[in-house]
Each structure stands twice: as C-alpha cells, then as structure tokens.
TrEMBL record:
<dbReference type="InterPro" id="IPR036847">
    <property type="entry name" value="RimP_C_sf"/>
</dbReference>
<feature type="domain" description="Ribosome maturation factor RimP N-terminal">
    <location>
        <begin position="46"/>
        <end position="122"/>
    </location>
</feature>
<feature type="region of interest" description="Disordered">
    <location>
        <begin position="192"/>
        <end position="219"/>
    </location>
</feature>
<dbReference type="InterPro" id="IPR035956">
    <property type="entry name" value="RimP_N_sf"/>
</dbReference>
<dbReference type="GO" id="GO:0005829">
    <property type="term" value="C:cytosol"/>
</dbReference>
<dbReference type="InterPro" id="IPR028989">
    <property type="entry name" value="RimP_N"/>
</dbReference>
<comment type="function">
    <text>Required for maturation of 30S ribosomal subunits.</text>
</comment>
<dbReference type="GO" id="GO:0000028">
    <property type="term" value="P:ribosomal small subunit assembly"/>
</dbReference>
<dbReference type="Pfam" id="PF17384">
    <property type="entry name" value="DUF150_C"/>
</dbReference>
<feature type="domain" description="Ribosome maturation factor RimP C-terminal">
    <location>
        <begin position="125"/>
        <end position="185"/>
    </location>
</feature>
<protein>
    <recommendedName>
        <fullName>Ribosome maturation factor RimP</fullName>
    </recommendedName>
</protein>
<dbReference type="GO" id="GO:0006412">
    <property type="term" value="P:translation"/>
</dbReference>
<keyword id="KW-0963">Cytoplasm</keyword>
<feature type="compositionally biased region" description="Low complexity">
    <location>
        <begin position="1"/>
        <end position="11"/>
    </location>
</feature>
<dbReference type="Pfam" id="PF02576">
    <property type="entry name" value="RimP_N"/>
</dbReference>
<dbReference type="InterPro" id="IPR028998">
    <property type="entry name" value="RimP_C"/>
</dbReference>
<keyword id="KW-0690">Ribosome biogenesis</keyword>
Amino acid sequence: MTQRGRAGARPGTRRSGARGRDTAEPRPAAPRVDLAAARARVRAVIEPVVAAAGYDLEDVSVSRAGRRHVLRVLVDADGGIALDDVAVISREISAALDAADEAEGELLAGEYQLEVGSPGVDRPLTAPRHWRRNVGRLVAVTVAGRAVTGRVSAADDARVVMDVDGTARELPYDQLGPGRVQIEFKRMAEAEFEDTDDDVLDHDDDDDDDDEDGESDQR
C-alpha cells in the first residue's frame, strides 16, 4: 500500500465555552469531487501501464475517507501475482499518476492514498479469464435463472465446462450470472494432511540414510 498526494491543512484550535477549554477545529473533509468521473480518469491513465506490465486491471475504486480519498486498484494475471510484483506495479502506477497530475492537473483534489493489490477468492467471476483462473475450483453460479454448483473443469473465451454431480455441462457465458468460488474446508484439510505425511516420509528417509552412513563408518 502506498500513501501519496498533497497534505491537507493542519487543524487549528479555538477557545470555546465558559470554562475556557481549547477545542480542536473539525478536520476538513476531503474536497468534493465527482467520484465516477475521477475513477474514469484514473483508469484511463493507469490501464496502459498495467497492461504493459503484463497484468489485467480488474477494478479501480475511489472513495472518501475523512480528509482524503482512497484509490484502490486491483490487478491480476494468469498464475496470480506475487507480493514483490504488486510492489513494482504499485510504483509504476504511482509514477503514472504523478505524471498525469503534472500534465493535466490534479486527478484527485487534495490528499489521497493509493492501495494496489490482487482480488481475493470472494471476487465474482464475470469474465472468461476469471473462470480460466479458477479451473479445478468449486463454483456456485446462476444458469438461466437456476442455481448450479459444480467444479470448473475447463474454460475458454466462449464457454465454461463444469462437472455438476458427475455430469460435464458446457455453459456459454451469456447464460451465466456471476460465479462465486466456494471455500472447501475438507479439501484444505486433506491437502494439509498430505503435506504432513510427506514431511514424515522425508524424515524417515533421512533416518534411513543416517543408519546406512553409520554402518559404512563401522566397516
């Protein structure tokens, strides 16, 4: 997360009431801007930067938080995106915003905070690339008005193939609502158990190697 922008005015104090207490002036709110227009301007600036880095720009949001605005940017790629890569693209986005401020004037008036990250598993699946990146996962989706839950077995630009109760169903995207990835605690527990078994086997192999080395030394 990167915080940048112009600092707001520092609050002053004034004397108020019969007791003569010093009370702080209310902090000024963030300057009023058209958030939808600001979001569109920001997206136009940063989308080419994100694409040039090899990522997809999944979402841009602008919200008010007290005296400043919060600009949240979500990026993703096939195979996911590592934290180090998020840090790199965050710096590139920040530099592009600075350049746009210099050339076109402030994109967001006043101080703002830039947050760059990747979507979580709760992100709705609305584009073919979202389905492609979730092959193997259990997904709930509305198909032609009916709720369906199945495992994604394949996805391309035209349709997704889901295993629903043992039957493969090819579903065109124009029949699908937003998909929701289902968290499978049982599969997570099984994966952790398999990792533990592997660690035990590796440890046993090491012990066997030590025994063989000991026998060789005795000879």
